[in-house]
Amino acid sequence: MHTRAADAVQRRLDELIALRAGVDVAFFAEQAPRIARLCHAMAERFARGGRLIAVGSSAQDQTDVRHVAVEFVHPVIVGKRALPAIGLVPAAGAVAEQVGLLAEPDDIVIAFGGDAGLAAAVGAARGRGCLTVAFAPIGAEWEGLPPGHDAFVDQELTETLYHLLWELVHVFFEHRGLLAGRSAGPVHDSGAASFLYPFLAEREDDLDAVLEDVRRSALMKAGEVAALRERTLREGGAELAGAAGALRAVFETGGTLLAFGNGGSATDASDLVADLRSPPPGLHA
Questions:
Q1: Does an H or E element contain 110, and which?
Q2: Which secondary-structure segment (H or E) carries 97?
Q3: 88 SS3 class
């Protein structure tokens, strides 16, 4: 790469790293206690037979809808249970109408985006008794609002957040005695030894201790993601610049990018295509 171009790319990488510096830590330091309680509330609903219903409208939001549904249905960590999830997008009709047809009281509706249609979907879900989650101020019961200063950073925070929800909701399945209102009875009877092993008899009562563990886990995992993102930009800068240059050369000669993947990777491919074809405001397609 020409020296001047290489210098420009390095400056841009430095800008991107600086833009992200501390954002993850600050955001999740504020949100971690709420994330822990949300995971507990979600686990209670899953334990009662509830489902995750993800909704979104824009091209980028639809990739998040598909990604979170795949994450819950098809766990990537060995030993984690598959949890029922479905994604609803406008291709099948107005999202609010779909939610009105499908949502049940124990379901969890998670909305990506902030348009009027999603606000209506959240309203419909709340009317059904669903737990509602959103990343924009659209009237959801639980809202995690990224700072809003950069569309890509906000999207990264949202993606990290819903990955944390998937991973940490499973913690409460390991402490089933803390899940109120579920219909299933105890799965173990430890008899006279129950005072030694309260979990086996599902008689745990120290919810605050588990919530604190989950809070710390959320902070730790978010920090790991932030460190990995920065390391990737720093150590892989030359490779990223080379790939970007190759793509630009192809596009300038009329070529087409074909992105593909399997499972969760398919949604990553869709996300790349969405960013290239329908970039956030302020960027050019």
A1: strand 108-112
A2: helix 95-102
A3: strand
pLDDT at 153 over 70: yes
Residue type, 38: L
How far apart, in whole angstroms, are the C-alpha atoms of residue 177 and residue 188?
11
Burial of 2 (0-12, 13-18, 19+ CB in 10 A): exposed
Element (H, E) at 159: helix 151-169
- Compute the chain's Rg from CA coordinates: 21
State how far the Cα of 226 lies from the Cα of 19, in Å rounded to an integer: 12
Q: Residue for token digits 């080379």?
A: 242
Distances (CA, A) of 164 to 33, 124, 224: 13, 26, 12
E strand or H helix that includes residue 134: strand 131-134
Tell me the CA end-to-end span of the chain in Å, nearest whole number: 24
pTM for the model: 0.85
DSSP 53: E
Q: Is the C-alpha dihedral spanning 199, 202, 205, 210 positive or negative?
A: positive
- For range 258-270, the mean pLDDT: 86
Confidence of residue 160 (pLDDT cuts 50, 70, 90): very high
pLDDT tens by residue, 55-74: 999 888 999 999 999 989 98
List helix spans (H) across 170-206. none
Q: CA-CA distance, 199 to 175, in Å (whole number)?
A: 6
193's tokens: 């030894």
The residues near 19 (Cβ < 8 Å, ≥ 6 apart) are 150, 153
Neighbours of 86 (CB within 10 A): 16
